[in-house]
Specification:
The protein has 304 residues and is α/β, with parallel strands linked by helices. It has nine helices and eleven strands. The protein has a single domain, classed as Survival protein SurE-like phosphatase/nucleotidase (Stationary-phase Survival Protein Sure Homolog, Chain: A, 3-Layer(aba) Sandwich), CATH 3.40.1210. The strands form two sheets. A nine-stranded mixed beta sheet has the order 3-4-2-1-5-6-7-11-8. The protein has a two-stranded antiparallel sheet with strand order 9-10.
Length: 304
């Protein structure tokens, strides 16, 4: 979902001091924008399941930041389901505790149910999906249920952020959970930035979301990232399936890691360097004007 037309948005959001870590310049009283101090209404989802550590930590941290958070997430682990939505005529939904709904379906199903029923009549200000256990960079993002939940929100016109925690190595339970703390601290800063810039309007332009990947930093994995980078989705898919014939009609499936050099300015490069990658995304799968021009040239002169 690389989109040239929305990349400047992320650059604009990240270039000011609050996220970059430098001291802000003094502003005159006349220049201060009006602030909306009402809590944001946030629909919180994920693909690891409604009781996973990442979503529970996100609920606690976002609530502590003053936001009105409601979990509407899959009943079971739905990692790797991408933008899939169920087509069954019925859907099992549980309401195990206040502010928590568990949907027996995908992240997309959860968001759809949340927008239609839990937030019926007034859409949330923001959908946050995650934080995911492990990264969602490069080709992983295309198939990610975490990203898929955010895409479902964007399709319905609701601003969305996908959050993921992890480096390029296989996620370790202890270190990844430790790194979720700084991931969510950054998420709060990012949401504050969006809120300040939006004043009382939309947090993000219509149809635009952010895919945020936080690296694992430090010996105990609770360290601070080196920087924040506005990135795009690296086009490579570095997980390659390998199939071995068992001889009985079944095939054994393993996965190989085949990393190529990271694209300069991409999310893979940023996370590998210990930076937080913030990639703008949209839900309509469009490319930029250059690709449209190439397509027009390819079909020039063709007739039905």
């Amino acid at each position: 979902m690389r989109s040239k037309r929305v990349l400047p948005l992320a650059a604009l959001l990240l270039c000011t001091p609050a996220l970059a870590g430098t001291a802000p310049a003094a502003a005159s009283p006349q220049a201060a924008p009006p602030q909306n101090t009402d809590p944001l209404r946030i629909l919180l989802t994920n693909d690891d399941g409604y009781s996973a550590p990442g979503i529970r930590k996100a609920f606690e941290r976002l609530t502590a930041a003053g936001h009105d958070v409601t979990i509407v997430a899959p009943l079971t682990n739905q990692s790797g389901t991408g933008t899939k939505m169920m087509s069954a005529p019925t859907l099992t939904v549980k309401h195990p505790e206040p502010k928590v709904w568990a949907v027996d379906g995908t992240p997309g199903d959860s968001v759809a149910f949340g927008l239609a029923e839990v937030f019926a009549g007034e859409a949330p200000d923001l959908v946050v999906s995650g934080t995911n256990f492990g990264p969602n960079v490069a080709g992983l993002a295309t198939h990610s249920g975490t990203v898929g939940g955010a895409v479902a929100a964007l399709e319905s016109g609701v601003p969305a952020i996908a959050l993921s925690t992890g480096g390029l190595a296989a996620p370790d339970p202890v270190t990844t959970v430790n790194a979720m703390g700084p991931t969510l601290d950054f998420a709060v800063k990012l949401i504050d930035r969006l809120r300040a810039r939006a004043r009382s309007g939309r947090l993000l332009p219509e149809g635009v979301g952010l895919n945020v990947n936080h690296p694992v930093i430090g010996a105990d994995s609770s360290g601070t990232a080196a920087a924040v980078a506005a990135t795009f989705q690296d086009p490579q898919n570095f997980l390659q399936p390998d199939f071995t014939d068992s001889g009985d009609g079944t095939w054994k499936v393993t996965v190989k890691v085949a990393l190529r050099p990271a694209a300069k300015g991409g999310d893979l490069e940023a996370v590998a360097a210990g930076r937080i990658a913030v990639s703008p995304m949209n839900a309509d799968w469009n490319t930029g004007p250059a690709e449209h021009a190439v397509t027009s040239a390819l079909i020039s002169g063709l007739r039905p």
